[in-house]
Predict the structure.
Amino acid sequence: MTIRTLIWHEHRHEKKNKLVASLYPEGMHGALKKAFAGDSDFVVDHALLDDDEEHGLSEKRLAETDVLIWWGHAAHGDVKDAIVERVAKRVWEGMGLIVLHSGHYSKIFKRLMGTPCSLKWREAGEKEIVWIVNPNHPIAAGLPECIRIEHEEMYGEPFSIPEPLETVMISHFEGGEVFRSGVTYRRGAGNVFYFRPGHEAYPTYHNPDVLRVIKNATRWACNPARPWTGIHPAPNVPHDKAPYPLEVKGPRLHEDGQEGFR
Ligand code: ZN
C-alpha cells in the first residue's frame, strides 16, 4: 500500500532567522521530504502552522493521512487545542505519529504522553552519537551501529516521558549526558515514535542516516487496520438489548429506565 505521509511544520524559524533559512532554503519540511525521494511506497505532502485557520490539518486532510510527522519549537502555544484533540483522535484511530526533536514539548505529544515531557538541554554545537540499542527493530533497518552527528543541541535525562514501549536509540553527547533519543509508544491504535535529533541551527535533516530513521519510522508507524475508527461515542446498551435476557436488579441512578450518564 502507499503510505500517505504528511509533514507538519511550524515553519517560523526559517522566516525570522538567516542561519536557519540558509540551512533549510526549502524549509525543514522540504529537507524532511527528501527522506522519501524516489520511493513509490510513500506519497508525501506538508502542512504548515500558518497555512490556514486549522494549521493545514482539516478533518479531511487528517482522514487521508496514514502517518503524520511533527516538528515544532517556538510556537507550540499557537496550535489550537481543538486541532490537538483532532490529531489525538486520529492517532487513537490508528494514524501513526512521528514527533521530532523539540516536538517533545508540543501540545500533541504531551497530550498523548500525559506527562511533562521535560528534559535538560544545552546549545553548544557538540557531537552526538545516536547508539542503536535495538538493531533488529524495523526503525533501525539499514542503519550502522550508531549515527554520528557532528553538531547538535544536547538533550539530557531525565526525560519525563512514560516508560517507552521500546527504546530503539540512546544518544551520547560530547559533554557527557545521555538521552533516550528513539522511543516508541502505542496510543489507541496509533503507533507513536519520538526521535530526538533536529535542532534548527544545525544541518541535521540533511544527514542521510537521520533521514533513513524518519523514513523507517514512517513505514513502521503506518497501521492500515484502523480498528478503533468510529468507536469514540460511548453508547448506552439498554438492559433489554443485552445479548441474554437480563433482569434489572438493585438500585439504579435513573429510575425512569433511562440508563447511563446524561
Ligand atoms: Zn532544538
